[in-house]
Amino acid sequence: MEGKTDFITFLKKIYSFYYKVFLFSLIVVLISSVAILLVGRFTNQAYSAYGVTSESMIPTLYRYDLVIVKEKSRYKEDDIITFTAGADKDLFTHRIVEVRDDGNLRRYRTKGDANESRDSWWVDHESISGSLLYSVRYAGFFAVFLNSVAGIILLIIIPANTLLTLVMRDLLSRKG
User: Fold this and answer.
1) Strands of the sheet with 105-111, listed across from one edge
2) N or C: which terminus of the chain has fewer CB atoms within 10 Å of its end residue's CB?
3) CA-to-CA distance for 96 and 115, rounded, in angstroms?
4) In which band, very low, low, confident or very high, does the pLDDT at 18 lie, cut at 50, 70 and 90?
5) What is the pTM of this model?
6) Residue 104's domain spans which residues?
7) Cβ atoms within 10 A of the Cβ of 151, count?
8) How many Å separate Cα 172 from the centre of its chain?
9) How far is CA 167 from CA 21, 90, 146, in A?
10) Could you count the other beta carbons within 10 Å of the beta carbon of residue 5?
């Protein structure tokens, strides 16, 4: 009987741990999302938040910084912008180093502050999410993690383990 009690206590500890991690994660996501949405709504501006995934902007931005960007009608040289580029439409946050007007099309050449050379592509205005409004050091870790394979798996594994633990606890309490 003591072995069964120890096992139930163990399951309760696992459940408690996963529940706390899940709750904390949920609260962080909700507060961040609501804050960004409220700022955009009350100021009538379009804001977005992204996690920095590389070290290409050191010392201005570091990996896992949270960047808040704001849409603008025009961008200028030296603006730090978040945009999509490449065949996979990867997300980048780099500085504009050159602006080119080709008739009705305005394009931008970018470069990471820590990179030796400019990016090989030109960025169209439609590919830009916005320019840097502010950043929060290392606050983007959660956003970057949730967009990774490990983060997605964890989002499935933690709730599944929690559910399994609850079911097992319920089954064991009915037999006891």
Assistant:
1) 47-51, 66-70, 128-136, 80-85, 90-102, 105-111, 122-124
2) N
3) 13
4) confident
5) 0.64
6) 2-175
7) 14
8) 39
9) 19, 41, 26
10) 10
Residues 144 and 91 sit within 8 Å (Cβ to Cβ): no
Separation CA 94–CA 19 (nearest Å): 38
Tell me how far apart the alpha carbons of residues 109 and 102 are, in angstroms, rounded to a whole number: 13
Interval 25-40: pLDDT, tens:
767 766 766 666 566 5
Q: 149-175 and 2-43 are packed helices; what angle lies between their axes, rounded to 10 degrees?
A: 140
What pairs with residue 50 in β-bridges?
Answer: 67
The number of distinct structural domains making up the chain is 1
Alpha helices in 117-148 (DSSP H): 141-146
* 84: its two tokens: 């999509």
Which CATH number fits the domain that encloses residue 131?
2.10.109.10
> What pLDDT does 132 receive?
94
What tokens appear for 44 in the block? 């009538």
Contact predicate 81/130, CB 8 Å:
yes
Question: Cβ(33)–Cβ(146) under 8 Å?
Answer: no
Distances, alpha carbon 107 to alpha carbons 46, 69, 71, in Å:
21, 19, 16
